[in-house]
Amino acid sequence: xxxxxxxGVSSIQENTPVRYLSDTGIPQGRRAWNxxxxxxxxxxxxxxxxxxEIADFVKVGxxxxxxxxxxxxxxxxxxxxxxxPAYREMIxxxxxxxxxxxxxxxxxxxxxELGKTVCSDGLTVYLLVCPELFERExxxxxxxxxxxxxxxxxxxARLSLAAAQIASGQAxxxxxxxxxxxxxxxxxxxxxxxxxxxxxVPSVFTIHNLAYQGLYDVSRCQALGIPADAFNMHEVExxxxxxxxxxxxxxxxxxxxxSATYAREITTPQFGCGLNGLLTQRAEKxxxxxxxxxxxxxxxxxxxxxxxxxxxxxxxRGKRANAEHVRRMFGLGVSNGPxxxxxxxxxxxxxxxxxxxxxxSIVRAGGRSSSSAGARCRWKRPCATWRPVSLVRLASIxxxxxxxxxxxxxxxxxx
Length: 415
What we know:
By secondary structure, the chain is an alpha/beta fold. The chain has twelve helices and 16 strands. A hairpin with a 2-residue loop joins strand 9 (237-238) and strand 10. The longest helix is centred in the middle third of the chain and has 16 residues, at 152-167.
């Protein structure tokens, strides 16, 4: 994805040149975290989990799943609460929202109301109620056409600012976190604001996808309340641009990624997206860890009402019934060969080049292939080369949840 195409939702191209290997590492004045959290008795932490999406209300990718599952997994030992923007889906839901107060603005970031809702299992969710920023058609990051919101910097600076205000005791709540868990570039400024304000609140910053960095022009620093002297190669500057992701990497107490393998990969020039120098420094200080995402074992095909036919382990009749349903839905020809399905964002990181390269062999061997995903323009050209093998067509499928675009192909992968 082009580095400026989606106003902060964009990814960094592969093989970004590397510099910014600093001798100073952590900015002067910021305490290196020793892994201990201040507590007021017992062994329970108060944790604020800050995220732009959660599967309970609005989900774009794996972060939404993690945001729903991880706080609940920790809840048996810790007081974990969510902070998330109040998107239109949340406002329109049946959840009762209690308005707790108002959070002041900062620089060009507008004030907002802070709401609270409690899920049926007791999970507390704080909501940023700011209709002009969050109650929009589309996803948390993009409009209905897939174009990133022009003001994503302000939108997610508002999320980061609210987290910092809660953590520093400026929100007027009777609850204050011992630890912040921040996720991806959308939350990166949280640790920055706390550092610039002189508040020493420990934070964990999780990288779900380093390629999406939230890059903006340096002129946006003032609008976001970022001190001018923080725009340097050791802090928030990235090849002449402002990087919200880098703010999180620099100022957070500890960094985690979604696997030990990815934690190693991002310290290399090939996968470090130009930040491998900084990440290598954090790793050498013991401040970069790989923690695998868990698997949600709550799904049960024996009871899932969305399936064409429920099935159990080794129930091949039920599995074939669902494969037949997919075949008809995608307009695929009848075949005794296997059905290969791709459910993914169609971007390079997901291995689409490998899928396209294997599609012809799959088809010629009697297999079938289907893809359900959002596509980017760069993949339309290579996918179009499969027209001699099979007709590529697009269909809209209406389900009980939403209207989604589904790429349909009688015999080959398409976008």
